[in-house]
Amino acid sequence: MPPPPNTETSTREIVPPSELVVRAKLDNRWYALGGGVLALAILYLAWPFQHWNFETRSSVLGGWFRSAISQEEWQFCLLVPFLTGFLIYLQRAKLRTLPLEGDWRGLALILPGLGFYWMGYKVDTGYLGFLSAHLFLGGLIVLVGGRAWARVLFTPWLLLTFMWPMFPLEEMLASPLRLITANVAAKFLNLVGVGTVSEGTSLFSAADAASGLARGDRFRLNVEAPCSGIRSLFSLLMIALFYGSMALRQPKQRLILFLSAVPLAMLGNFVRMILLALGSMWFGSEFAVGRNIDGHQEMSGFHSLAGYAVFAVALGGMFAVCSYFEGRHWKKVKKSAKGFTGGTPSLASRPLSRLTLAQVGTAVALAGVCLGVCAATPVQLVLAQPGLVRTLPLQFKDFQGIEQGMTIQEKKILAEGVKIVRNAYLGPGGRQILVTLITSGQGKRELHRPEVCLPGQGWNMAESTPVELKLSDGRTITATLLRLFSDREVAPGVQSRVRAVNIYWYVGSDGTTSPDYYDHIRISYLDAIFKNINHRWSMVSIFSPIAESQLADNNPFAEIGAIEEVKNFVQDLAPHFMMKADGSAPAP
Fold first, then answer.
1. What is the extent of the structural domain holding 450?
2. pTM of the predicted model, to two decimals?
3. Would 8 be classed as within a structural domain?
4. pLDDT digits 0-9 by tens, 532-558
5. Is residue 4 in a domain?
6. In this structure, which of 17, 305, 577, 587 has its CB flanked by the most CB atoms within 10 Å?
7. How far apart are CA 221 and CA 182, in angstroms?
8. Coil, strand or helix: which one is 539?
9. Alpha-carbon distance 307 to 311, whole Å?
10. Looking at the predicted structure, is the pLDDT value of residue 499 above 70?
């Protein structure tokens, strides 16, 4: 008689060998996914990375969310992860056919990413954290998935670039875009017969003697930073990349569409300025631009609607570019669409994927090592002493000075601990020079550029240029020279203009000087990382108005003479408050 059946053996599930292979492959994929998510989570979601202007440290992603949601023009960054996820979802069928063939060359991105992570943690800046997250994710794709995965996921990874709000780029690019927009708008208006004068970032209607109109009577516009087009440029670049990946097949076409977003954004802003100029001529400045109430510009409804012209022109241009490419390759696109059968490819039809546990384990281990290094890194901020003394002489050569303290408005907007010393000097011929020494508090980025606050005080910028100052003690430093002007109506139909010059530079704790805001931030980071010096920066600002005159009587030589007088004054005064190069006290 045959033996009785074994209950355990008979009830055990019998799995075909092919399905075992599939399950093993799925297990490998879940191990890879879980390990990659773990490495990303502990670095960018769990670890307290930076203060982000808050009392306690927050993770990279936590600070990213709070920073993006607090700035209206950067809130589009919050949509980028969802758009990226949608692009990956569309590639799901292709990704299922790709084996996990990890490539150790992914470490070429992961290691620099971890290096930037440590640097950002040490100097307490989120921008290096953003860069680190982007590099680490790209390296992880190559390390675990291999080059085939990197090719498929390259566009989604590139789209994630627009997830990170890069506030410095906004200010760095705004000034040149403002100048370009003003110049191009002036040339176009002149071409179509609307007399226009461009000066710096400002546009004025030209004088018309036959009609008895002075310059600026028809319209006067200033291309402010929000009107430069920079705020719409980043979102339009993101839209172009996403739109191109959805509508176009060839990488060259996608690149052309992406690059076209730059001139299209500038074209849209140009149309906006033309609408404001024509609206001011036809319906009046208050209707087209708005009203100035106690120094605050209140935009009119027409002004707000004109702002949508940027997106209308840019998006229309993108649609035209895509339509052109789709028209040329429509047959090819239709053919490829017909050849797509859909469905989920069988994992069993592919060769067994390479074991990826070593690559995943390496990524997690490197993340742990990086956090260990960060934990052992002293991050308590101890600022060095300022590189200048906070005193100014009341009498200097032929100039008589009087102390001017910090204003109430400055006390409200400046961070606690910021110190201001200011003297107003009156010299021969009535020359007025205002000298301001500003020293930061415990924060590292508490000093802003004069270009940020001067427009709020009614000044328009005609030019910004570096200038060399040869100090009386033999040192040579580079500063920034701003040429400014402000117009006002002194009588019905009579416009008066006041010009001014502003020279400024930054002084570090070791006597280092910098003429540029972003350059002094760069020096701060590099010295904190490699020299262990935490600068307590100061800014020197020299402001001098030029005699008021009517627009028709403007004398350009008066401005040249004023600039030379101010330079000579600064070159003699600076050694009396700046520390010497060897760290010794300045001259008495």
1. 395-576
2. 0.77
3. no
4. 888 888 999 999 988 766 554 566 677
5. no
6. 577
7. 9
8. strand
9. 8
10. yes
